[in-house]
Amino acid sequence: MPNFDFLAQPSLPRPDVTGDDATAIAAEHYxxxxxxxxxxxxxxxxxxxxxxxxxYVLKLANPVFSADELHAQNAAMATLARSGVSIPEVMTxxxxxxLIAVDVRGxxxxxRLLGYLDGEPLTGVADPSAEQLRTLGTLAGTVAAGLAxxxxxxxxxxxxxxxxxxxxxxxxxxxxxADPAKRRVVRETVxxxxxxxxxxxxxxxxxxxxxxVTDDNIVLGTGGDEAGGEAGTTxxxxxxxxxxxxxxxxxxxxxxxxxxxxxxxHVPAAPLAVLDVVxxxxxxxxxxxxxxxxLWPLVVLRGAVLVVSGEQQVALDGDNRYADENRxxxxxxxxxxxxxxxxxxxxxxxxxxxxxxxxxxxxxGGAPTTGSPIVGLRTAEHHLAxxxxxxxxxxxxxxxxxxxxxxxxxxxxxxxxxxxxxxxEHRLTRASIDRRAASATRALSVTMDAPGGVxxxxxxxxxxxxxxxxxxxxxxxxxxxxxxxxxxxxxAHVAQGETxxxxxxxxxxxxxxxxxxxxxxxxxxxxxxVWEQVSPDPSALFGADLAAPESxxxxxxxxxxxxxxxxxxxYFAEPPLIERGWRHHxxxxxxxxxxxxxxxxxxxxxxxxxxxxxxxxxxxxxNTNSRFHYEELARFTERLAGLAPxxxxxxxxxxxxxxxxxxxxxxxxxxxGRRTILAVTEAYHGWTVGAxxxxxxxxxxxxxxxxxxxxxxxxxxPNTYRGRHRGAASAPPYLADLDEDLAALxxxxxxxAGLIAEPVFGNAGGVMLPDGYLRGAYQRIRDRGGVxxxxxxxxxxxxxxxxxxxxxxxxxxPDIITxxxxxxxxxxxxAVITTRAIADSFAAEGSFFSSAGGSPVSATVGLTVLDIxxxxxxxRNAAEVGDHxxxxxxxxxRRHALIGAVxxxxxxxxxxxxxxxxxxxPATEEAAAVCDRMLAEGCVVQPTGDHKNVLKxxxxxxxxxxxxxxxxxxxxxxxxxx
Length: 978
Fold this sequence. Notes:
There is one protein chain. By secondary structure, the chain is of the alpha+beta class. It is 35% helix and 17% strand. It is built from 26 helices and 37 strands. The strands form 9 sheets. A 7-stranded antiparallel beta sheet has the order 12-14-19-17-16-15-18. α6 packs across α9 and α7 packs across α10 (342-357). The longest helix is centred in the first third of the chain and has 28 residues, at 289-316. It starts with 18 loop residues before the first helix and ends with a helix. 50% of the residues are buried.
């Protein structure tokens, strides 16, 4: 029988063997009786036989595997046993054979019996220590070294775990990854890994490998003698290795890649911890140059093979709990691996291994001591270019211009003669929008721009040679890499202080990775402290402090918590430190961008240049209160009144939506001479005493339903999705319920002052009211002499796209409109728009005044926002992009059962997550997890609703179709991998 070739036979369902079969085989062929328990296996059948005095593993191999292959596995165990590795003992059958053949329901299977190796697998260790990780690496290295000389005809086999065919395995099995988002990510990631591996393949060493020295297959010894009085159980005082089913010829570094991949899901928050695994492996089985370069691509490839193989195995073998349960951590390992840049990991690994080889008690940090500067120009603070996230030189979106860096440097040169960039700075100019991966923003090199030219001198002695298009000066303990140096293309040994050339634009980078240049820009995934060791700060070469200051998001959050009331919550448990916005993007201090899907406050986008300019100009002229007379106020209130439906023609200006609602309630009560206000459940209207009184969302206040004041009467929210009546045609039964509520009030003698309701349920995630509900409700309230308030703070002002006001969608005209948020684009600005008669009736309570409401700056903000909305056709964009986004989200709903419904209109949407589409059980924990994972995908989204299970989607109105598509793509992946 030929050895197995996975590429010829890629489907390997486990053989059909039951516990009863195993019991009979153990008794008949090995004379063993006892408790039989099945153990997990990807493609074989394994059973634990516990006789009471000893334990054994009965292994029934998949029938595709030849006897030679199993003999090779036994040979590998024997070889390693002689090397001192704790491994299971191969037991013989009653006839003296180490392999026997049995017939199980017409299928010939080869059986072996092994002693059970005592101890705990690393799989069950949630957070392994550095010592445990080193044990894993040492074992893998010891196994690799022990098997290096093994030769056996049964090793010439092709398994799906052979790193050499990882790409082909993915090609064969990727269609088993049912979700297209996961499939796309696997495909793109594997293609990139294979491209990086291509030039290395012929240089990688081939030998006998275990193939699976992983957390599943090492056991941490418990110590002591547990063998009892019978052969079988293998006692151990240290760690051991089990499961030799994947022994074959393969790449030596592939052995390490499998081990590292298995550790990743244990340390997802600190993946560099796997360096302990690698260093320990290399101490026993040294890695060569090609191995180091190939390692991370192979880790990624191993993760991808695990993902596709797990999906295939579950499809083939539906009751394989082992394969099914492994899928989550296999995806996690792959996901962690794909997010780490291979070049960055390679640079850090080379430094780590060189440092270990030097046996340094502690790594040498910082820049080398130099006796002379690299240039003769004196660099002061004013020569330093600020390319950080907060640089005003990059305002107005200039950071997206490919020539932005050159422009900033040129401006400094014009004023001061030369310019220098900063070391370790996260450059905004290197950020990318709509990103799928982290942007490499941190600079490990510095650039001097000197238009007049400058001589360059050697800061230390060494060999100067051109390598891959750059000059490298090799010193005693560090290399200096130079770009832009003009000199003869000859290798030379230069002395410290010797002129080595000239430059106009000179880029300088130090490297402690001998002979290798680290990346010049890196992502935030590896801490700055590590890069300061690998590629030190070159400040000493310029005689100036070039190190950029480092922000600390955790420290800033701690300071916030120390002085800012805790009830003023923040998004995310570990939020990024956001210091810039642009249009519908947010940028953190590490230069990572996020699509802003929650900011209905900044309707026209973050940092709009027209708004910035208008505010600056007005503030330079005048900012006071509205008791003074200035024309900007009149212009703004005229525009607002003109936008409101007739007969609403009179405007109050305030500072927020809460104040607007509070004032609207007072207007209703004063105008009618009554106190009772009807408000619908599930709503949030604000934080002032009045606005809070009519807010009943238990998501914002768990005691809301039981703590309303006596002048507030709650009526059932006409929630068409999860209310007491459901569907688009549910207005009549909801109005019938309202009739009952009103009849009860009439009977008790309580006259109604008014009704307040959002025309679209914003706090519920954009749930649309049933058609006709507000028309019927308004008529009933007006028949009783009350007034109708439309709270448009969240959903109005063009956000619905097809309507400027939400009340338009319901075909009604309210008596009072409240609006805020979008009006000021983040500036505190709100308004109440009503009729002259209602406004004048407020005089009974005296005059009204708001210190900042309607100030010259506030009026300018409001006018400019409206001008931008008109000129940039943002309401139309809300309709077009919103419709496109909603359609794509509904398509997701057809593929992801967690999506119960997509609510809303325009750019006020909500994705309601439920665990069951019949019971509508809210998926609250899942929604929180989605939001956290979306942040890692470069998108900011948050939950809302009484159950916090609705993803609220209300981005700036300027969002593009491309960003909307990226958001959906990210959400698709996150939902597929929950």
